[in-house]
Amino acid sequence: MVVFPNAKINLGLHITKKRQDGFHNIETVFFPVRGYNDVLEVLENKESTTDILSTSGIDTNAEPNDNLVMKALRLLREELSIPPLKIHLHKNIPSGAGLGGGSSDAAFMLQLLNEQFNLGLSVAILERKASALGADCAFFVKNEPTLAKGIGNEFSPIEIDLNGLWLMLVIPPIHLSTPASYKNITPRKPANWLKEILDSEITKWPQLLINDFEPNAFSAHPELQEIKKRLYDEGAIYAAMSGSGSAMFGLFSEKTEIDWPENFKVWIGKMGKE
């Protein structure tokens, strides 16, 4: 069976409070980018009693047992019987870019196993299992625009219509770790909550829709701020960093081509439901 785990972008990201457990409360909106995908194939391994994971595309920089796909498999095996598998993961979505590639792989693995082996798990159970693998993993189960609070794991649906707009993702060769991104962050109550902002005209988003990770990221890597400026200079209606970075994105009213350095990864696609 083959599935295509997709990326996501963050529309706004507020870091609102430092928690007693050391984590931070946030407010953000996850928005699926269904055209930008990894590829995950799973077959029953009838030739061996062990699982085999192979990868291609972008280097995952992880041992097979540390891959979230394998962690998802082990999580289901704690309660359910699943035979030995041959798993191949082709990575298009880079890690450390704020696009949720690893989380998407894990969530899609849970759903694939549920369907392929008739496990009978409900959406609610799949979401609960996914949340044990990472704060944003559960988002990819329903894979619809979602307002996330808490540590990014308290979800509520939100209506956002970006149909017809063009998305340009620009990913420079910079890896930003989430823990490092939280250093020197001062939590604050935002001037406007995200639902209020996203209900407004998109032309107001550049002044209102903020990612609190941007100032530190731009200070450490000025080229990220330069990418954002260029997206606006080339006509973006809205541009920002996704999550804790380093992917930058721009929303355009029409398809736009921009020359970027050869070592940048760039994806352009039209927004809309499948």
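The record above closes out task 2.4. Task 2.5 opens with a second protein, given below.
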Amino acid sequence: MRVLSILLLLLAVDALAQTTAPAPPDQTPFTLRSQSSLVLVPTQVQTHKGDMLYDLQPTQFTLLDDGVPQTIHLDEDTDALGLNLVVVVQCSRSAFTQFGHMTGLPALIDDLLGGAPHQIALINYGSEVELLTSFTHSDKRLADAFTNLQPCDDEKDARTLDAVDYANHLFDKLPATNHDRRAILLIGETRDHGSQTRTAVVAANLARSNTVVDAISFNPGKDDLLKMLPFGGPAPSPAEAILLLVNALRRNVPHTLTNMTGGEYSNFNSQKGFEKGVHRLANHIHNFYLLSFQPTTADGAPVPSGIHRITIKIPDYPDAKIRFRLTYYFGSAPPPDVPDSPQN
């Protein structure tokens, strides 16, 4: 089973690695990507009281793709997987008042990593996205990069979507032999201000990727994505699904991205709140089931291209709290042309 797990991860990561180096966000077009049909679904399971559920078996999970049951594989050795992490920090607008709460960020990230093999990249953003360090294993290089993480003199823009899309493209530079998990840690306010990358493109790229986005937001916010995406009944068309994601991203970017990808979301307005949020993320990162499946349809027809809705249930624990990626993007077609601004 371990051999099968490695082969499945090889297929997924090899397909995601076949792209060019990232360009600056305002110059990065939507490109067609070669990809495997394998879908990875990191999944966290808690009792209704919040206690972690361990040792579940593959047969206890029910996974639906647009309402169609799928055959799943459960990786039994996730502790052996390393982590590729991109830390994305807003330096503009209200970030000026929050940097004092983040003084312990390097030490807190160590809590996220645990003892797993890892490499980290660091980005900050305001009107521009700046790569402070590309992926590195070096503690000194990373410490120097964190030293350069300072508030920027920018009271207008916070291009969160540009920064996340740029971070997602950084994984494309990893060698095909890198089979470790991929995660983005986003630290910023709830709204996007000034991004040039189309919202629908970011939604499609994150739904296509096997990357998990975790986020800690400056301001508390409410996200309606879970209510907007239909449970049961006919699945939305790709255009309808993209529109739902775009509308949710307008309301709360970090929360929507974590819901999409199965990550953890928290908010803070104090140093204690920030530290609590990071510790919650650490608990999520180190306690998960890695499910995977190759999409099939009920009648054996080709799997339709576009956004697909994932649903996971555990019949033995009907009251369990289950965190998983809500969507994935099948095929290489560009996302539907959905306007970024609400139409009158």
